[in-house]
Amino acid sequence: MLYSSIGYYALVLGLGISLILVYFSIKNFQNSSTLNTKILSFTFLQFFLVVISFVCLIISFVLSDFSNETVFNNSHTTKPLFYKIAGTWGNHEGSLLLWLLVLTLFILIFFLKTKNQPLKYKLLTLIFQQIIIIGFFLFLIQTSNPFNFIFPTPEEGMGLNPILQDPALAIHPPILYLGYVGSSIIFSSALAATYLNLVSKVWASHIKKWIIASWVFLTLGILLGSIWAYYELGWGGFWFWDPVENVSLMPWLALTTLLHCIIVLEKKQVLTSWVIILSISTFTLSMCGTFLVRSGILNSVHTFANDPERGLFILVFLFSLIFISLFIFFFFHKSSPNNSNSFFWLSKEISIIINNWFMMYFLSVVLIGTIYPIFLEVLSSQKISVGPPFYHKLIIPFLIPFLMAMAIGPKLKWIKSNIVDKSYLALFFAISIVLSFLIVKKFSTNLLINTILVSSALYLFFMTLRDFFIRKYSNISQNIAHFGFSLLILSILLNNLFSSEIITNLKVGETFTSSKTKIVFKSINQKQEKNYKSIIANFSIENINEKIEDLSPELRIYNQPNIVTSEADIKTTLLLDKFIVINIVQNQDYFNVRYQVKPFMLWIWISVILISFGGLLSFFKREHEK
Amino acid sequence: MKNKLLPIFIASIFIIVFILFYKGLQNTNIYTPETKTSNKIPSFKGDLFYSDETINSLNFFNSDKFYLLNVWSSWCVPCRKEHTFLMNFKESKKIEVVGINYKDKKINAANFLIELGNPYKKIIFDQDGIIAIEWGAYGVPETFLIKDRVIIKRYIGPLDEKTAKEIKSIIK
Amino acid sequence: MKIFKLFFVIYLISSFNHLEASDDDVKSKITKNLRCLVCQGQSVYDSDSQFANSMKVLIDKKLEEGFTEIQIYDYFRERYGEWILYDPKLNKNTYVMWLLPILIFLIGGAIIIRNLILKKN
User: Fold this and answer.
1) Test mutation, A383, A564, A589, A592, chain B, max B CBs within 10 A
2) Which among A5, A80, A223, C47 could bridge C36 via Cys, Cβ 3.0 to 4.6 Å?
3) Residue A193 burial (10 A CB sphere; 0-12, 13-18, 19+)
4) How large is the ipTM?
């Protein structure tokens, strides 16, 4: 109870400090040329207060303090300690507190680390960031207080959904938010730079690190979510084009585009308007995503609390931010004078522009697919569902030229300049086509488009691989990231082409036989664990080449809340995953058994790690090494 | 002139999108299947519960009385609560209560009826849940009010005081 | 040039309809395309709920009876409305949804080309 009070008042104080900070910053902006040190202290104090608040919430969870409504709704005494802690940010109120934590942390780091920028710019960035922070404080205190009292104190809590009790899911929000929320700095800083007409090469070099950091975290955060979905949700899939997933993908697409643009802006004073728009859009998309998943407007597997009052608040907040940013852009942005010698055909800038072009297309597909059903329902009361077929049909054809552009793009400068040995370009192309033709022909009936797809991915694969080995340019981070991307597309394609599945109903002792596989349902063990009853089914699977593998999927029957979850047993090797899951069939004494063979799953995860690693390398690259 | 056009265009999109989202918030997210193309009962073939003989939809709804078709199972908890309302309709001359036993084990279903009473003149045994899908149902319990082979009203979820009153007033 | 781009894109999209199914996987394709109505955002293929399992049995039956994929979609659409299908049909309600991204792509291309030509001159 004590901790709830401390936590609550820390938040109220934090809000007060926002107002103080805005006041002092405006004063400092108008009158001095040196930083008022009080500002730095208050920024730190604000962050510190949010930390206190956050820690108080964690303590309340750990102590199972059910007089706190959030703890009551989301925890239970029998939950393991690790998940009691992780439960802090696994709910609506706690996750908003996490938003505030990252918002205040990032502005603090921004202040500490920004050395050579004009004072006015730093102050203005702070002011814009505080506007966002104030909005979130108000949202939290008004509609989503993590420290609400309930009286009398309940004996026991409502428990946390057991499928959320997983290590990957525990760290998924913090990492994701570092990226997602971290783009707030880019937003604030871009607005400040626009107002002061400072959008330039210098600003670009400075903001680039923030963009990369935000991007790396966002990439890893999305990866963790997919890994969780694959291992925990029991369907063997890792991406469902679910609205919540799309909502994390959209800022990622915008951020990746921005990352490519900032590389150009760093060298040349071009594309300034576009960079500003992208910076604004990334955070706007994050906020928009928050709106979509927390307001109850969308139907999804993992939406948070559905509360239209909250939805209205976020909607107004979001549109206020958009309004402010559009206002500043239109009134204060001066386009750079037309450089007469800017773009040549076949230059690096062209390839980045083409990248932007396609990325914006992909972004629009995801955005429209996610939002259109909402608008349609409002306008015509007709409910439609937009799922994987929509996204696949619109994205995959465009992926082909995109991959080709990625392969050739970085080389355009060289292509134009020397007529040096470019035969490898055509050679790799030919090899890619032949190889993919052979692969696809063996395993699938849809020859044409699969071949083209796989060959374009292979082409990028070979090109980046070759560059890595030749060390032709020092741009190793780009090389690794693009290689990772080609590997990702390849793994996903091959996984799709070669996966196989058997679904059958079996009783204990029964066997399923097909031409390639024999599944024997050997036995069942039952065990009582701390907060669930466990039923483990033992299978032995025999392949066509006589190899026998033992797999044991599990069913968990929880009592608080009353849920049955299915834990898949997955055997991962370098080449493929063997995936088995069982489900209870209501009222029957047999189980529904699903066995899948999924090639290259591990490579999907590795490739995304490679992509982030490329970004990480770029982050740590020193200025003078470029 | 062109410079003024763009901000105005964007501002109007801005306002439209805001309004659309605002309206969107008011919509509920619960799926209500008002979208069936016709209200006629589906044609189907099913097995009767006790006698195992096959019956088709025409013969099942062969009189011009009102019918109350209830989709139920022994393992469905809300079905227990609504059962008393169904029993109340049992003696009525104006309406005939019939049932679809959904994805159940015969012995459990029979025991359920022994325990709580059997309001159903006829019951179809829908072991796979296929017939329920023919009706556009997707869970238990659901109830349909039918006359002259047309669905007049559909209730998703258990019957209660309010819906039972509504049915009574319709069949008067 | 733009017309050629357009044709190419249209051709790819139409040929893409054959991408996902090989003949013995029609059932998977159908179940992946149908929404499980009692779940929060899962397809019938992914879900193990009662409803989803009934749907799978019914789809098997209909396939045996000789229904084509389109006929099965129509069958369910009649009973549950457009909401149950994940692949939005191209009708007057969804034209905008399908074509807007393509339109954006073309506009993007136009802007780029215009800027490049302007700069060159």
Assistant:
1) A383
2) C47
3) buried
4) 0.83
Nearest to A376 among C28, C48, C93 (CB): C93
| CB-closest option in A297, A323, A326 to B24 | A297
- Which neighbouring-strand residues pair with A512? A519
Most B CBs within 10 A among A276, A586, A592, hence the mutation to make, goes to A586
Higher pLDDT pick, A564 / A336? A564
Nearest to A99 by CA among A215, A179, A35, A3: A179
CB contacts, 8 Å: B33 with chain C:
79-81
Chains with 3+ CB–CB pairs under 8 A to C are A, B
Q: Where are the domains of chain C?
A: 20-87, 89-121
User: Region A406-421: what's the mean pLDDT?
Assistant: 68
Q: Which residues in chain C are contacts of A357 at CB distance < 8 A? A: 105, 108-109, 112
B138/C53 CB distance under 8 A: no
Please give the span between the terminal C-alpha atoms of chain C, in angstroms, as a whole number. 20
Q: What string of DSSP letters covers A64-123?
A: T-TTBHHHHHH--TTS-HHHHHHTTSSSHHHHHHHHHHHHHHHHHHHHHH--SS-HHHHH
pLDDT at B81 over 70: yes
Write out pLDDT tens, residues A473-524.
567 888 899 999 999 999 998 888 888 888 888 888 888 888 888 889 999 9
Chain mean pLDDT for chain C: 76
The shortest CB-CB distance from C57 to any of B38, B128, B135 is to B128
Q: C79 and B103: CB-CB below 8 Å?
A: no
Spatial separation of the C-alpha atoms in residues A309 and A317, rounded to whole Å: 12
Q: Do residues B153 and B170 touch, judged by C-beta distance below 8 A? A: yes
Taking an 8 Å cut-off on Cβ atoms, the answer to whether B22 and A315 are in contact is yes
pTM (two decimals) = 0.88
- Rounded distance between C-alpha atoms, residue A532 and residue A562, angstroms: 10
Q: DSSP letters of B9-34?
A: HHHHHHHHHHHHHHHHHHS--S---T
Per-residue buried b or exposed e for A537-556, using 16+ beta carbons within 10 Å of the residue's own CB: bbbebbeeeeeeeebbbbbb
Architecture of domain C20-87: Orthogonal Bundle (1.10)
pLDDT category of residue C19 using cuts at 50, 70 and 90: very low
Query: How do the domains of chain A map onto residue ranges?
Result: 1-163, 166-335+343-386, 388-498, 500-602
What is the reported pLDDT for A363? Answer: 96
Q: Domains in chain B, start-ordered, CATH in brackets?
A: 45-171 (3.40.30.10)
CB pair distance less than 8 Å for A372 and C48: no
Neighboring chain C residues of B35 at a CB cutoff of 8 Å: 80-83
pLDDT tens across A142-200, in order?
A: 888 999 988 888 888 887 677 778 888 889 999 999 998 999 999 999 999 999 988 88
Beta bridge partners of A532: A558
Residue A158 forms contact with C (CB below 8 Å): no
Q: Answer yes or no: do C54 and B132 touch at CB < 8 A.
A: yes
**B162-171 pLDDT tens trace:** 888 888 888 8
Region A423-438 average pLDDT: 74
Predicted local confidence at residue A455, as pLDDT: 84
- Mean pLDDT computed over every residue of chain A: 86
The 8-class DSSP code of residue C83 comes to G
User: What is the per-residue pLDDT for A564?
Assistant: 83
